[in-house]
Amino acid sequence: MNKNYFLLVALLISSLSFGQVLEENFDYGMTNGDLTAASGGAWAQHSGTSDPVQYVATPSLTMTGYPSSGIGGHVSVSGTSQDVNRSFSGISSGTVYGSALVNLSAVGSGNYFMHFNIAGGFTTRIGARDDGSGGVQFGVGTSSSTLTYGTTSYALNTTYLLVFSYEVSSGVSNLHVLSAVTATEPAMPEATNTGTTGRTISAIAIRQSNNIPTFLIDGIRVAESWTEIMNNSSIPSVSIVTPGDGATFDPGTSSVDVSFTVQNLDLMVAGNQVNITVNSDPTDTDVSSPYAVPTMNGGMYSVTVELLENNIVIDTKMVSFSVASITQVSSITELRNGNLGDYYELDAEAIISYIVTENTRNQKYIQDSGAGILIDDTAGTLSTTLAAGDGIFGLQGQLSQFSGVLQFVPISNLPGASSSGNSITPLFVTANELATNGEAYESRLIRVLNVEFSDMGNFADNTNYTVTTAGGSDTTVCRASFGDEDLIGTAIPAVPVDIIGLGGEFNGSYQVLPRFSSDIDTTLSTEEFGTTEFNMYPNPATGNIVTIASASNNTKDVQVYSILGKQVINTTITNTLNIADLQSGVYVVKITDNGKSATKKLVIK
C-alpha cells in the first residue's frame, strides 16, 4: 500500500514540474526543400504561398550548453510571402517561454520575423532592424506590429540565442538576446512590451514580409519556465514529431506516418512501451516510430500516443489530422467559384495559353470557353512535358490566391496532353471594361482595343504602364511581366495599338500582361478611335442595316467579332452592312479603307 502511495505522489510531482512543451531541432532527413513538406505537416502554412520557408538538412546551428544545439539541420528564411507555424497544446496561465538560435546575414529597417500564435492573432512578436551602423538591434512587440527595440548593437553572421516570454496575467512580453547559455533568467531584458492579457498561446510561427531579415533559425523550444528552456528534463516523456496538430493532407493520401520520440525511458526494458489508439479503433500496443495510419479522402483522425513505464501510463500526447476530400467541377468558371483551400478536379479539358519559363514556379495559364486560371506549381508536380496550345484533362489541385489572383496548385501529375495544337482567340476588351470588370478576364487571353501608352522609351521587366483609350479618357494598366521574352527592351509605341495578353490582377487593380513583342499590335490606324474618318450609324442598331460612311466613299473591308473574339462577319462593302443574322449584343467592328484601319464598338438591340 505504501509503495503504491509513493508511486502516485511521484507521478503527480512529475506531471506538475514538467514544463517543456515543444522542442524543434529541424531533424527531417537529408532532403532540402519546403519546410511544410519536409516536416510532414508538423509546420503548417497560415499565410502566403510563394517563397516557402526552406528546410536545410545540414548543418545545424550551435551554442555550447544549449540542449537543442547541433541537432539535425536548420531553416533558411529570405523571402517575403509564406508564413508557417507549429502548434502545441494551448497554454492559458503562467508564463510561456520560447527560444531559438538565430543567425542574421542581412537586416532591413525593421520588422518582426517570429511570434507566438493566439486565437485570431499573434503576440510576443520578435523582430530586428539595422542599427544605422551595420549592426543589428532586436525588438519585441505584442498585439501590435510596432516593436520596442533594445539599444544594444549585435553583429550580423553571428548565432545568438533569443529567449522570449509572455506572461498571461500581465500581458508583458520580454526578450533576452544571449551570446551564451545562462541558468537563470537575467533581471533586465533586452526589450519589453505590454499587450493584451489572458491570451492562450497555441503555436509558434516564422514570418516573412518586407524588411524581414535574411536569417537562419534552429533549436526552437517552448516551455513554461526558463529552466526548461535551458535544460533537458530527466522526466520520461513522449513527443509527437509529425504530423502537426490540425494538419490537412492532400486528397489521395492513403497513409500518414505518425512519428514520435521518447525521452528518458529505455523501451528495451519489459513493460516500457508506446501504445497508439486511432479514433475508436482498438489500441495497438508496443509500437515503434513511425506508425502508419491508413487514410482515405475526407477522413478525420484523432491519434492518442501513450508512454508506459512498468505497464503504467506515465505520459499521453494527442494529435488530430485529416485528409481533404476532392470535388469535381466541370468548368474553370465552377472552379473559380470554389472555396480557397479546398481541393478540386477539373473534369473537363482546358487549354494552355502560356507557360511561364522565367521563374521556378512552373506556372501555366489555362482557360476554357468561359474562364481562365493560373496554375502555380512550385513543387513541379506536373512533370509531364506540356506546351502552349495543349489541352489538359482531369487536373487535380488546391485553390489558392496571391495578391488577388486565383491560383490552382496541382497535387497530382497528368499522363500527358489530351490534345495539342489548339488555338485561342483573344477576347476583345476595352480599357474601361478591363479596369471595371477585370475579374471576368483574369488569366484569359484578351485583346485590349485601341489604346495609347503615356510612357516613352523601351519596355522594362516587371514594370507597369498606363494606357488610355485613343481619343478618350478610359485607362487601364499594361504590365511587362515576362522578362525572358522578346517584348523586353523593344520600343514603347507612340501610336494607338491593340494589346494582346493575359488578364492579370494585383490586389484589385486589373492589368493586361503581354507576352511577346508581337502582342503589341501597331497595325491600327494613326487616326484616333472615334474620329469622323469613319462614321457608323445607327449605333445602337435596331434594324438589319448599319451604314458605314467615310470621306472617300471607297469600298471597305469589314470584319465583325463577337465580344468573345469570334469572327461573325467578314465582307467587303461600300457603305451598308447587313447585320440581320446577328443577335442582340455587343460586337467589335474592324473597318479597313485604303490601308487605314479603325476599330469601333457596335451595339445591337
Q: What count of helical segments does DSSP give?
A: 5
Q: Give the strand content.
A: over 45%
Rg measurement, Å: 31 Å
Low-confidence parts: 1-18, 525-532
What structural class do the secondary elements suggest?
mainly beta
Main beta sheet strand tally, sense and closure: 9 strands, antiparallel
Q: Report the average pLDDT across residues.
A: 89
**Terminal CA distance:** 97 Å
CATH level-two architecture of the largest domain: Sandwich
The total beta strand count reads: 43
| Integer tally of domains | 5
CATH level-3 fold name of the largest domain: Jelly Rolls
CATH class annotation of the largest domain: Mainly Beta
What is the percent of helical residues?
Answer: under 10%
Q: Quick one: overall form?
A: elongated
Give the topology, please.
Blueprint: H1 2-17, E1 20-24, E2 33-34, H2 35-38, E3 44-47, E4 54-56, E5 74-77, E6 83-91, E7 95-106, E8 111-118, E9 121-130, E10 136-141, E11 148-149, E12 159-167, E13 172-178, E14 191-194, E15 201-206, E16 214-223, H3 226-230, E17 237-242, E18 247-249, E19 255-263, E20 273-278, E21 291-294, E22 300-309, E23 312-323, E24 326-329, H4 332-336, E25 343-355, E26 364-367, E27 372-375, E28 391-402, E29 405-410, E30 427-429, H5 431-437, E31 445-453, E32 463-469, E33 475-480, E34 497-506, E35 509-513, E36 520-521, E37 534-537, E38 545-550, E39 556-562, E40 567-573, E41 576-578, E42 585-593, E43 596-604
Parallel strand pairs: 18-23, 24-25, 27-29, 30-31, 33-35
Antiparallel strand pairs: 1-16, 2-4, 3-6, 4-5, 5-16, 6-15, 7-12, 7-16, 8-9, 8-15, 9-10, 10-11, 12-13, 13-14, 17-19, 19-21, 20-22, 22-23, 25-26, 25-28, 26-27, 28-29, 31-32, 31-34, 32-33, 34-35, 34-36, 37-38, 38-41, 39-40, 39-42, 42-43
